[in-house]
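# nightly structure sweep
# worker-07 picked up a monomer target from the shared queue
# config: single-sequence mode, recycle default, output format = structure tokens
# input follows
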Amino acid sequence: MATTTTRDEEELEELVAVSSPEQSPSRDGSIESAISLLSPAITSETASAIRHLAAYTTPLQLYPAKRLAGVLVLLHVNPLGGLSVTLTTRSLLLRSHPGETALPGGRFEPQDPTVEATALREANEEIGLPIDPSSLLHLTTLPAYTSRTLLVVIPSVYLLLTIPSLPLLQSLVPNPSEVDAIFNLALKSFLMLPPPPSSSSTTTSTPDKIGAEVLVHSSEDLVWLKDRLYRLHHFSHPSAPSQVWGLTADIIVAVALVAQYGLSADEEQSENGEESGRLGYGRWAERQMTWKEIVENAMMGMGRNGLVDRKKEATDQRTRAT
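# output follows
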């Protein structure tokens, strides 16, 4: 007798489980061993940041494999003892998002055992990152985000244990069919915090050092899902070949907040920043949904695919009316 597979059964077969690493004494030991390994090169603030990220947990969630993607937030110790993140500029040959800044990553494939494996595989394909468990430490996996095309995006945060990190970073080679450039920026710089009072005028006026980049920030509020506003952030720096903006910026800001302040998932999602002094700018637009709400609405197919500039939309409507 032939069996019939219902749509619900098909959906169940395609679901992928996503969660942060399980907390345990052995994992705590691994984190402390990594900090000890890096201790000659890192500051006490960086050691705390690593512990904060490793303690960050997200509950188990299930997502359809066909709508799932993984991105890699690859952190390394920079020359100043802080953490920097690896970014790419997408190839101009690509049909989707050419020339834009991105984290290494891509769609979940059937052969990927986890979404973290997706992120590492894509990083290997895009920038030649060696998938070596002895040199990469999985710190945490963030809750889901949603792309402009309503794809569910899972960021996995890994720490490069190679000291010094420069030789390995310099060995990374862009895959010309996917990536035009690879660059790094200090993680903390995305918080846009004012310099400490002890900083002298001569220190702040000197050119940026690697690991202490001073970014330029701007933002605009656009209409997205359920016609609610979404604040689109832009970060730029003279050393960066492309601006960091949109989803990529949002993910890095979340990682920076957790690293700096040890926020829980709920605290991070509700943190506006400017009001509490944890960011040098307002993070959310008025009545903006949290990423948890955005993902839930995207999964239900509610709202629009892509962002809309409300002012431009109104102008276009007036133009068509005439």
